[in-house]
Write a structure and sequence with these properties.
The structure is a single chain. This protein is of the alpha+beta class and about 550 residues long. Among the domains are: about 1-60, Beta Barrel (Thrombin, subunit H); about 355-450, Immunoglobulins (Immunoglobulin-like, Sandwich); about 455-555. The protein has 2 helices and 42 strands. Helix 1 packs antiparallel against helix 2. The longest helix is centred in the C-terminal third of the chain and has 69 residues, at about 455-525.
């Protein structure tokens, strides 16, 4: 404990650190919730216990918030900047300007209660732009008007050179000569102008409500580059131009050609309204956080990473209204004060440990355990998780089942599953707001018994019986087919044998007849020639029959 400091909690939800040597307020931190108790640790982390929102952590060691005197009617600041001396000036929504050199703080009155839109310095000359006009050197607010508009509503301003400011309005833009206190409407479409970004002497990128342009100050001419999307803000780093759209995307241009689109993501703010290139990074402001885009470009290929910081990191508020630089610091105007952020701030990764709050099986709450052995019908699982990280950097949970390599994002903190039978291992992990995946995981195992009709052995048996029946039927069918084939073959063989026997008998009879006729003819040849001729005729007939039967026999034998 440090005893040279006094820690106070005020009835307006401020935590104040008083230096007991000087009795001055060293730090003043505002909490959104009513504070019940607070503690500042050795790392300059403020732990506050609230009545309704639990414990909150504010890192006070890196980001410094300016003290806004109670004399200010509104701590919702719309713009912030610094002069050559390093003095910080911030304008709020009630026409009040805060000036501080880090030691003393004072309020500059503008004589109006209009919104302070922008503060610029031209050497020792100051320019204040409000909704209803402009003021030079903290003087009276002067109107901008012409024949088209009796009074222009001013929105922003950009320093063009040492004497000229380009002022954005809801209908076109004006060039204002600070030294002569004269203005002139530039040659540009009558639409709302969001920002000017200087490319080089007399040449600017222009973001409007209908697109993206370039403007030549010297020749008073413009050229449209992109008109597909409405743009909200732009910034140029000397090589690349960044344009934010109303869809939350960021378009990156090189040499006036689109080379990359960064899609809307959780790390980009909602309703991007501010972008400033500071110390090789793009600082992006919106309604819910401040994002820092680190990037590199090589031959038109963009590699990038987006980190975001917010109130839990020490910002005065998550709603960002303006961004500028002063030395090695980034000045951030918010709806609850001014924050000074080191331009080399290191964004920490947060190890978030997931824990189970409660677990339900078939809608019945069960004691929390690591392993559950369940019946086959106890497969409806509901698990509520909590990410143990008190500083508010938790983003979401991710889960997977068994050995799956794919992690699924969990919306909210309750996981509802209908598990299959067998072993189911559910593993959960957490990510922080900068998408860092914690190394801490939580696993729970559900061993769900499998019904016999869903088990492997049952279906193996059924498959065996089924395919066994098919094989048996096929075997029986094949056996019958073979039996029929052999029966038919036997019948053919029997028939063949019968035909062979008949042919053999015919041939034998014919040969016998030929032999008898030959013998008789030989005996009658010398005695009775007439009778001999008759026998030779019979023999010729027998020979023909023999040759005929012999031919049939040979043909049949060769089949």
């Amino acid at each position: 404990m440090v005893y040279d400091k006094l820690y106070l909690i005020t009835n307006k939800n401020y935590f104040e650190i008083i230096d007991l040597e000087t009795f001055s307020v060293e730090k003043k931190i505002r909490c959104d919730e009513k504070i019940k108790c607070a503690f500042l640790d050795t790392h300059q982390n403020l732990w506050s216990g609230t009545f309704n929102e639990g414990i909150q952590l504010f890192n006070t060691g890196k980001i410094r918030n300016l003290t806004v005197p109670d004399s200010f009617n509104n701590k919702n600041f719309n713009t912030v900047t610094a002069n050559e001396k390093g003095e910080i000036f911030a304008g709020n929504f009630n026409g009040e300007i805060l000036k501080t050199d880090g030691i003393t703080t004072e309020k500059i009155k503008t004589g109006t209660d209009f919104w302070i839109r922008k503060i610029l310095f031209f050497g020792k000359t100051s320019l204040v732009v409000t909704d209803k006009g402009y003021s030079i050197n903290w003087g009276k607010v002067q109107d901008i008007k012409d024949d088209s508009y009796p009074l222009y509503s001013l929105k922003k301003a950009t320093k063009a050179n040492d004497s000229i400011a380009l002022i954005c309005t809801i209908s076109g833009a004006f060039r204002l000569n600070i030294l002569k206190n004269t203005y002139q409407k530039i040659n540009f479409p009558n639409e709302r102008i969001m920002s000017f970004s200087k490319i080089k002497e007399n040449e600017f990128y222009v973001i409007s409500s209908s697109g993206f342009y370039t403007y030549d100050l010297k020749n008073n001419t413009y050229q449209r580059i992109l008109e597909k999307y409405n743009c909200t803000s732009g910034s140029y780093d000397g090589n690349l131009f960044f344009a934010a759209t109303t869809l939350g995307e960021i378009y990156i241009f090189k040499n006036k050609k689109l080379i990359k689109i960064i899609p809307n993501s959780n790390n980009l703010p909602e309703n991007i309204s501010q972008m400033e290139y500071i110390n090789k990074k793009l600082w992006i402001g919106g309604r819910k956080n401040l994002s820092i885009l680190s990037y590199s470009e090589n031959n038109g290929i963009i590699e990038y990473d987006i980190k975001k910081i917010g109130k839990n990191d020490g910002l005065a508020s998550n709603a960002i209204t303006d961004i500028s630089s002063s030395g090695r610091n980034v000045l951030v105007a918010t709806e609850n004060g001014i924050s000074v952020v080191p331009d080399d701030i290191q964004i920490l990764n947060f190890e978030i440990r997931p824990e189970i709050i409660y677990l339900k099986i078939n809608q019945e709450i069960k004691p929390i355990a690591d392993v559950y052995d369940l019946k086959s019908d106890q497969n409806n699982i509901s698990i509520a998780f909590s990410g143990v990280e008190l500083s508010g950097h938790f983003k979401n949970f991710q889960y997977k089942i068994n050995d799956s390599k794919k992690w699924s994002n969990l919306s909210g903190n309750i996981l509802n599953l209908e598990l299959s039978g067998g072993k189911n291992v559910i593993t959960i992990r957490a990510t922080d707001k900068n998408n860092y995946i914690s190394l801490n995981t939580k696993s729970v195992t559900f061993n769900i018994s499998i019904p016999f009709y869903k088990s492997i052995w049952f279906w193996t048996l059924v498959s065996g019986v089924f395919f066994g029946g098919i094989f048996a039927f096929y075997g029986r069918w094949r056996f019958l087919k073979q039996q029929e084939f052999y029966r038919h073959k036997l019948d053919l063989e029997n028939q063949q044998n019968k035909i062979t026997a008949d042919l053999h008998d015919d041939l034998g009879a014919t040969l016998s007849s030929l032999q008898i006729n030959s013998a008789i003819a030989q005996k009658l040849m010398e005695k009775d020639q007439h009778q001999t001729k008759k026998f030779f005729k019979n023999r010729t007939s027998s020979e023909r029959n023999f040759r005929k039967h012999r031919k049939y026999y040979l043909e049949y034998e060769t089949r």
